[in-house]
Amino acid sequence: MAGPRRAPTKGALVFFRPGKKDVNPKERAIWGDLMALGMVFPIAIALGYFLGRWIGGLLGHPRAGALVGLVWGVATGFWELYKVTLRLNRLDGGGGGDRKDGDDDGGR
Predict the structure, then answer these.
(1) Burial letters 4-31, b for 16+ CB under 10 A, else e
(2) How confident is the prediction for the chain on average, in pLDDT?
(3) How confident is the model at residue 57, as a pLDDT?
(4) Of 91 and 22, which is predicted with more confidence?
(5) Contact 26, 91 (CB under 8 A)
(6) Distance CA 92, CA 27 (A)
(7) Is the CB of residue 70 less than 8 Å from the CB of residue 45?
(8) CA 55/CA 73 separation, integer angstroms
(9) Alpha helix locations (H) across the chain?
(10) Separation of alpha carbons 4 and 85, rounded Å
(11) Helix (H, G, I), strand (E, B) or coil at 81
């Protein structure tokens, strides 16, 4: 027999409260991007490695193909990281580029 459901204690980490209607859609988009990034990185690396090994095997050089595929997969993962960073910066309101106040160029 289950007891009454307790509300989370103060300071508890709760991402999405069930039944709460005023959840910011931008916050959900940020969490979705970060979770997707956590999946894309290893999938891109593994897919690049195995496809490179397969194509290299067809060409008679499976080790070289695996290395090229691995590098391609890592580059793809970092490209996705770059795109997510730009998207999060845009959602955060940071325009990037020109800094008008607080320049940290040492007075140059």
Answers:
(1) eeeeeeeeeeeeeeeeeeeeeeeeeebe
(2) 79
(3) 95
(4) 91
(5) yes
(6) 10
(7) yes
(8) 14
(9) 25-59, 62-92
(10) 42
(11) helix
